[in-house]
Design goal:
- The protein has 433 residues and is of the alpha+beta class.
- It folds into two domains: 227 residues, no CATH class; 118 residues, Roll (PH-domain like), CATH 2.30.29.
- The protein is built from 16 helices and twelve strands.
- An eight-stranded mixed beta sheet has the order 8-7-6-5-11-10-9-12. Strands 1-2 form a two-stranded antiparallel sheet. The protein has a two-stranded antiparallel ribbon with strand order 3-4.
- A hairpin with a 7-residue loop joins strand 7 and strand 8.
- Helix 8 packs antiparallel against helix 9, helix 11 runs antiparallel to helix 12 and helix 12 crosses helix 14.
């Protein structure tokens, strides 16, 4: 997900100006009609025929409007005219109309598009102001409605049973990516159809300057991916729960919530945007915790399957072992994805490394006198050792067979035991908690 996200951001940043121009700006007269008389006659004739400036021209520059709204730290008040102008710009930019439906689209991408298309085709008159709805909406098509309705049925039926749900989980992220691409196409199309002589709004982020369209597109992608990842984790937990009908109940609740949020969006895009912001903040707070566990579950369950289906995956790429710490270890929180390998000087012990994008690499050194042992397990294997008088356990998947694992353990200098460890309920809770 991280690599694809970075690729999308890179493509959006280097996109041609024609795709970035005036994604939010409307016709000058229409925009100013919504916010009142933002610009009046710059000059008025005097008695002697000279021109006297009567009112300062109000430019529709979003960055200047935001600066006027917030003001410097020592300002004594906020200009009421700036507030009205900024409010009008937000309404004219279509910001709420684009951000409002992101939460239901992240919860159920295909079903969310089906709801948007249905509202666009048969919705009430008061739901016609959104760029994705109304008479000229991009989703106002019976073909689109029928196509996404069929996709919704095909992607939802496998989620109702535990036997077929792994297939649905495998294509869940592809479903989210497909809707993201569709939203970006709608956004770019709207930007291209906008008037070409209007100024391009820019957002300054430190040394990086982005057009408002690019910034909004990136925000939409991040919003959908984070909420969808959190939903995916709880859906995975429902699949692990031994209750037979839990998956069907979760899917019905998910579709009901998506339908309710779409109804709110049709009634008030502004209210839907506020709800989306609340969902996004809550998902962002727990995202790191959930992402580590999602990666852990996915590795433990899919690695043995991929090793059977694709034999090269069962061969180690280097002299290292991908492990997950069962509990907090040094600077690593529980369920962190680490690489266990020998140090350059093999007599100096081992090192646990965590690779992080855009952040410094963290590592933890294990002394040469540390006794590491690999224990086999029914679901996952483990590496156990004592660190600062505390028994530590690193788990890894059943990706390698016994022969390959024995060769890799010899290169790493770790003892491979022949016993199969049977965990009790408390230890199993730590492994999967």
């Amino acid at each position: 997900m991280n690599r694809l996200l970075c690729l999308l951001i890179f493509l959006l940043v280097i996109s041609p100006p024609s795709y970035q121009s005036d994604g939010y700006a409307q016709d000058n007269e229409t925009t100013r009609g919504k916010i009142g008389e933002a610009k009046s006659s710059a000059q008025a004739p005097s008695a002697d025929g000279s021109s006297i400036p009567t009112e300062k021209t109000q430019e529709a520059d979003p960055q200047a409007l935001l600066e006027n709204l917030v003001g410097p730290l020592d300002t004594k008040g906020v200009d009421a005219e700036a507030i009205a102008t900024t409010t009008g710009w937000i309404q004219a930019s279509g910001l709420t109309e684009l951000l409002g439906p992101l939460t239901p689209l992240a919860l159920s991408p295909f079903f969310g598009v089906t709801c948007l298309s249905a509202i666009s085709l048969w919705g009430p008159e008061w739901a016609s102001s959104s760029p994705m709805l109304g008479a000229n909406g991009a989703l106002r098509s019976e073909t689109i409605f029928i196509s996404f309705l069929l996709l919704t049925i095909l992607s939802s039926i496998p989620r109702f049973t535990k036997v077929s749900k792994p297939f649905a989980q495998a294509v869940d992220r592809l479903e989210a990516y497909a809707v993201i691409i569709m939203l970006l196409v709608i956004k770019i199309t709207a930007a291209m159809e906008a008037p070409g002589d209007a100024p391009v709004a820019m957002v300054q982020m430190g040394v990086l300057s982005l057009s408002f369209d690019t910034f909004l597109a990136i925000a939409m992608v991040i919003n959908i991916l984070i909420i969808n990842s959190v939903k995916f984790f709880f859906e995975f937990l429902a699949w692990l729960t031994p209750i037979p009908f839990m998956d069907a109940v979760f899917e019905l609740c998910n579709k009901t919530l998506c339908l309710g949020l779409m109804a709110i969006y049709a009634f008030s895009p502004t209210l839907a945007t506020l709800i989306n912001l609340a969902f996004f903040i809550a998902a962002l707070i727990i995202f790191r915790w959930i992402y580590r566990r999602t990666l852990f579950y996915r590795t433990m369950i899919l690695d043995p399957v991929l090793a059977r289906l694709w034999p090269p995956h069962a061969k180690p790429r280097g002299v290292e072992l991908v492990v997950f710490n069962r509990s907090e270890l040094a600077e690593f929180p529980a369920k962190s994805r680490l690489r266990l390998k020998r140090r350059d000087d093999q007599s100096a012990g081992w090192v646990l490394q965590e690779s992080r994008w855009w952040l410094p690499q963290r590592e933890h050194l294990l002394e040469p006198d540390t006794s590491l042992e690999i224990h086999l397990g029914w679901i996952m294997h483990s590496v156990e050792f004592t660190n600062n008088d505390k028994q530590e356990c690193l788990t890894f998947s059943r990706r390698y067979n016994t022969e390959t694992l024995q060769i890799l353990a010899g290169k790493l200098g770790i003892t491979l035991t022949t016993d199969v460890v049977e965990r009790d309920n408390a230890e199993r809770a730590l492994e999967f908690g």
